Amino acid sequence: MSRKLGSPDDLGARGPVPPAVRSSSPGWRDPRLWVGVAIVAASVVVGARVLADADDTVQVWAVAEDAGVGERLDPDGLVARRVRFADDEDLTRYFTVDDELPDDLTVLRGLGGGELLPRSAIGTTDDAGTVTVSLAVTPLLVPSGVGPGAVVDVYVTGDAALDARVRRDAGEPALEGVTVVAAPPTEDGFAPSGERQVELAVPDDEVGAFYGLLGSLGTPVVSLAQVG
């Protein structure tokens, strides 16, 4: 069986055949290639910068709970916080977790729970300018929330005639805004008389007057009022 391929005249009638065009892959001169390269490069730079910013944080110590003036902090009462400082000089004002903490962590100014621990707020007991005073207080006159770091006002009352003689108002605190250094639990902190022991950080220039008041009232009654 033969197949008719057609004569040259038939091929001419169909018109000229267009030449074949070879497809070519984009070369290095193709602007689209350079646009793609620029996009990839920009993405790499931005990603690297984001990662660098994410790693530009430092762990510093913060106080877990409120701490008052004269209170001695325990390392167990500190928590690590990750912070990013815009200025390296700001970092030097705080204790990082890699720093060696002083043996005496006496608070020189009140600190709130969660606050970063500044170097300027820590010193020795002498730096704080306070004296630890131990009081025996009737348990019913100690608020249940009183513990280390609590701030209290101390009231002292006595016989009305004695109060009048020393010319003082029993409604005014004998000590105002002092920090509780220690307040053993009820079962551990009872004095032999059945009273509870409470230790306070009292400004050293107020200690003499306070003891003078206690001595002038014969049998004084001490009560605490928690502040805040």
Care to describe what's here?
The protein contains 6 helices and 9 strands; from the N terminus they run ααββαββαββαββαβ. It has helices at 8-13, 31-55, 88-91, 125-128, 160-165, 207-216, and strands at residues 58-63, 78-83, 106-107, 122-123, 130-137, 151-157, 175-182, 196-203, 221-227. The strands form 3 sheets. Strands 5-8-7-6-9 form a 5-stranded antiparallel sheet. Strands 1-2 form a two-stranded antiparallel sheet. Strands 3-4 form a two-stranded antiparallel ribbon. The longest helix has 25 residues, at 31-55. It is rod-shaped, with a radius of gyration of 40 Å. The mean pLDDT is 79.
List keywords for this structure.
228 residues; Type Iii Antifreeze Protein Isoform Hplc 12; 6 helices; five-stranded antiparallel β-sheet; 2 domains; 9 strands; alpha+beta
* Contiguous runs where pLDDT drops below 50 for at least 5 residues: none
Q: What share of residues is helical?
A: 10-25%
Beta content comes to 15-25%
> What integer value in Å does the Rg equal?
40 Å
Distance between the termini: 113 Å
Label the structural class: alpha+beta
Shape: rod-shaped
Number of domains: 2
Q: Topology as H/E string?
A: HHEEHEEHEEHEEHE
Say how many strands there are. 9
Count of DSSP H/I helices: 6
Mean pLDDT across every amino acid position: 79
- Read across the widest sheet, the strand sequence of neighbours is 5-8-7-6-9
Main beta-sheet strand count, sense and barrel state: 5 strands, antiparallel
Sequence-ordered SSE layout with sheet pairings:
Blueprint: H1 8-13, H2 31-55, E1 58-63, E2 78-83, H3 88-91, E3 106-107, E4 122-123, H4 125-128, E5 130-137, E6 151-157, H5 160-165, E7 175-182, E8 196-203, H6 207-216, E9 221-227
Antiparallel strand pairs: 1-2, 3-4, 5-8, 6-7, 6-9, 7-8
